[in-house]
Amino acid sequence: MDQAGTYWRGRFVGFVRRWVLPVIAAGALGVLAAFLVSRAMVPEYRATAQLYLTPAAGSGAFQDVAVGQSLARTYAQLVTAEIVLRAAMSSVGWDGEIERFRARTQASQVRDTSIINVSFRDPDPERAADAANAIAQAFIDQSRTLEASLQGTTASQLDEQIGSVQADIQALDEQIARLRASVAASAPPGQPTARPDQQAQLLTLDGLRQSKQQTLAQLVRARDDIRLTAARSRNALTLWQAATPPRRPDSPNVVLTVALGGLAGALFALVAIGIVRYRDDRLSDADALAERLGTVAIGEIRLGARPRSLAGKLFVRDAPDSLEAEAFRSLRTSISFANPDGHPRTLLVTSAVPLEGKSVVSANLALVFADAGTPTILVDADLRRPSQHDLFGIKASPGLTDLLAGDAPSDAILEMRVRPNLIVIPAGPPPSTPAELASSGRMYAFLQYLRELSKDGVVILDASPLLTVTDAAALATKVDGCLMVVDSSRTGARVARRATEILQQVHAPVLGIVLNKVTAREAGYGYYRYPAAKSGKTGRTNVSAS
């Protein structure tokens, strides 16, 4: 696997190792919450009745099937109509609101069929079945009533006409009977024949009656034809399968609810992680530094024990085989590669704000240069909060301010040697105007003197933070290279960007940024990260676990 593949594999493994436990914990909480909610819910049973819709006879079987499926979708929307539900509520004795009854009712078409499912949910399985059947029957009755009202208008009119004709025929029959009785009563004995006028009247009434009979026959035939046609064109809705009391509750589905709860918890954790990482302005690793500041880290220093204390922070001296000591050796190599002409003779180490670990970095960097055989002078130029005397356990005075003021002999510097190749100059008594002293010509001349004193060596200045005072910015113009230490656990990109802008404004030679207090998880310890080639550009370095 190439270097890029190894790096991204390390990044992915690091991300997984960092966040897998929170995601699993969130998923477990989701599972627990879903289980408790499921146990607290009242079980509800779902009973389902099935209706079968037979469409009116058409011109072909395929058309009938298509029409039936289309009608079933429409009918399914009408099941929850108020007129249907109120009839069902009355049937089962439901005394609640119709909206609650409707909320428990569900009607749907079985896909690609003429079957309609009518379901009802209720904590009582018996009542759920009764309500489903009542709704189905109420819908059947209402649909039949509706179709009868739409198709029975013409037949009703014909029935009225038939009744009228039948009444006329009955009236004619009565007139004929009365006339014949009158003829029989008025005829002479032995001559039962009616008079001519009576015969003419009987013939007229009989003709009218025959005409009415023919009209009646036509009306009856027309009415029967209409009813037959209506019966053939009627959509038949029947109860295909009645609902029965279910044995198992429909909700809650404990298994599904628990699975969804776990998934929701894990997704919530992932979203929260994404939001936190998006809003987190810290430069937690070299990738965040490259992404937010557009620069690479010249080194990454692992977070050591007791990060807030100065005790035990000389890793190169006290724990030369530690990961921290190896990281400082890698940093020394990167500094040498950062300049095509070799390592800078004068090096300033600063930070954006206090407590980022610049003094610890300065001290250990001086130790690794000295251990490599390079004559090294470490100057505590933080005249406001000096700490090198505490790190090395030496006297705070005489120091830098004494030497600049001429209050100490020049050979006193040689007496500040703490190792064969390392001289540590403490800050000395605090001056009244540290900023003016840092930018003075005496400071520049003193630095030149130290360059000459450590031939082929390096002078390292531990300077004040950039965003609190102006001392470091003034000193940055007098050195060959500047390192800015960034606390990866708390320093934000905006703060670091402002500090680098200050160095750019004074045209300071910036070698790069050192990420300090990087956790092993963020730094990717255990994977090789190679120093950049000697091309004048700074490269990111790290330590191998081997």
Write the layout of secondary structure elements.
Elements: H1 3-40, E1 45-54, H2 61-78, H3 82-92, H4 98-103, E2 105-109, E3 115-122, H5 125-151, H6 153-186, H7 196-232, E4 236-241, H8 254-279, H9 286-293, E5 297-302, H10 315-318, H11 323-338, E6 346-351, H12 358-371, E7 376-380, H13 388-392, H14 400-405, E8 417-419, E9 422-425, H15 434-438, H16 441-453, E10 458-462, H17 471-476, E11 481-487, H18 493-505, E12 510-518, H19 520-523
Parallel strand pairs: 5-12, 6-10, 6-11, 7-9, 7-10, 11-12
Antiparallel strand pairs: 1-3, 1-4, 2-3, 8-9
Helix pairs in contact: 1-8, 3-5, 6-7, 11-12
Distance, first to last CA:
19 Å
How would you sum up the major sheet? 8 strands, mixed
Helicity range = 40-55%
- The overall pLDDT, averaged over residues, is 80
Determine and state the CATH class of the domain at 280-304 and 315-523: Alpha Beta
Summarize the model shown.
With 546 residues, the chain is α/β, with parallel strands linked by helices. 53% of the residues lie in helices and 14% in strands. Strands 5-12-11-6-10-7-9-8 form an eight-stranded mixed sheet, sandwiched between helices.
Question: What can you tell me about this protein's structure?
Answer:
It is a single chain. With 546 residues, the protein is α/β, with parallel strands linked by helices. Helix content is 53%, strand content 14%. An eight-stranded mixed β-sheet has the order 5-12-11-6-10-7-9-8, with helices on both faces. A four-stranded antiparallel β-sheet has the order 2-3-1-4. A hairpin with a 2-residue loop joins strand 8 (417-419) and strand 9. Helix 3 (82-92) crosses helix 5 (125-151), helix 6 packs antiparallel against helix 7 and helix 11 packs across helix 12 (358-371). The radius of gyration is 52 Å and the shape is rod-shaped.
